[in-house]
Amino acid sequence: MLEEVWKSIPGLEGYYEASNLGRIRSLSRYVAGGGEHTGGRYLRRSSSKILSPAPDSKGYLIFKSSVEGRKSRQAVHRCVCAAFHGAMPQGMTDCRHKDGNKLNNREENLAWSTRSDNLLDRNSHGTDTRGVKSPSAKLSESQVYEIREMFDRGLSIDKITDHFPVSYSQIYAVAKRIQWKHLAEKDVSQ
Predict the structure, then answer these.
(1) Nearest to 118 by CA among 96, 100, 87, 101
(2) Mean pLDDT throughout 14-24?
(3) Sign, Cα dihedral of 42, 43, 46, 52
(4) Is there a domain that residue 184 lies in?
(5) What is the per-residue DSSP string for 99-142?
(6) Which of 8, 76, 108, 173 could bond 61 through an S-S bridge, CB–CB 3.0 to 4.6 Å?
(7) Which of the pair, 114 or 41, is modelled with greater confidence?
(8) What is the domain range of residue 24?
């Protein structure tokens, strides 16, 4: 069994630590206590505890930090990566999950990467949400090909819009290949 190792999170030193197993804990410290009725004039001891992060709207685990009264949201994967792999190197923008699982924040599953490398990972992991995999998709791939074929045959965007349950601007973006770019052109010579 892997031994859990804790390290300080850069920027949150003395307040929070990340573990190689992807967990976050707050450290024991004194915090201002009391509300307006006491003017926040006393200190209370806050015990060390392992936090229970919650997923954000994109599925990444986050926790709320509080450092000297300043509260902010922190992404667990970025904190673990910074604690165990150091500051994000120049030219890197993302913290990638090597296995594509946003909930697996173990140190060995995380690495700094470029945006393009991270997006390429989505394809290999099968976690890409473009096209019909998007929860907001209103068209199927066959409908996209049909819209493109109608437009290429000279039908106006207005006329095409009459046949599909989406707006003029959506039809325009599909017909002009602004949206659904990931779909290859259909070979009509066959």
Answers:
(1) 96
(2) 96
(3) positive
(4) no
(5) TS-TT---GGGEEEE-HHHHHHHHHHHT----GGGSTT--S-HH
(6) 76
(7) 114
(8) 6-125
Residue 109, Cβ density class (10 Å: 0-12 exposed, 13-18 middle, ≥19 buried)? middle
- Of 126, 108, 176, nearest to 147 by C-alpha is 176
Same structural domain, 83 and 154: no
What is the Cα–Cα distance from 134 to 144, expressed in whole angstroms?
14
In one letter, which amino acid is 85? H
Q: Once rounded to an integer, what is the mean pLDDT over residues 103-127?
A: 86
* Cβ(147)–Cβ(153) below 8 Å: no
- Residue 187: φ, ψ to 5°: -85, 105
**What DSSP line would sit under 4-45, residue for residue?**
P-EEEPTTSTTTEEEETTS-EEEPPEEEEE--TTTTT-EEEE
- Tell me: the pLDDT tens digits for 112-122? 999 888 878 77
